[in-house]
Amino acid sequence: MSSILLKYGAKNLWATEEEKELTAEERRKLERKLKKERKKKEKQLMREAGISIKKVEPKKQSGSELALAYLTSWSENPEEWKFQKTRQTWLLLHMYDKEKVPDKYFTILLDYLQGLQGNARDLTVQKAEAFMKEFDDSNAEDPNLLDKCERIRQVLQLLS
């Protein structure tokens, strides 16, 4: 049996006549295996040299950042804006919290709520009325609760 020299990247492999007659699928599998082995050796050499190989993953935006960007897009670029149920749901759940939806965005959110339709509108009104009733019963003087109560009042005034 004669041997031939196959070159793959920086690695030389000796192949027999039988290996030369591999099908395309078998050749592809062999090439992937060799590539994997080469990468493994490169990583080992890097580790031995003390060079870090960790990949830096880009920071993902939080739900609040995505929702506020969605709201901004709705107000500033309505032609390219696209409805996203998850973003709307997040906004409706957190709209009374000043930390999650700052005043700057709340005014935009009020404009957004004017176009709210169907079940989302009905549920928002029901929840706002329930919150208002809860705050009327509590007689709390906490500034955060007063701010929340003011937001609830604005939403009720707008949607009722």
End-to-end Cα distance: 90 Å
**Main sheet attributes: strand count, strand direction, barrel closure:** 2 strands, antiparallel
Instruction: Work out the oligomeric state of the chains in this entry.
Output: single chain
Gyration radius over CA? 31 Å
**Average pLDDT score:** 82
Structural class by sheet pairing and helices: mainly alpha
Q: What percent strand?
A: 5-15%
Total number of β-strand segments?
Answer: 2
Q: Spans of 5+ residues with little confidence (pLDDT < 50)?
A: 1-12
Number of helices: 7
What share of residues is helical?
Answer: 55-70%
Output the strand order for the largest sheet. 1-2
Question: What's the order of the H and E elements?
Answer: EEHHHHHHH
Per the principal axes of the C-alpha atoms, what is the gross shape?
elongated
In short:
It contains seven helices and two strands. The chain has 160 residues and is mainly α. The termini are far apart.
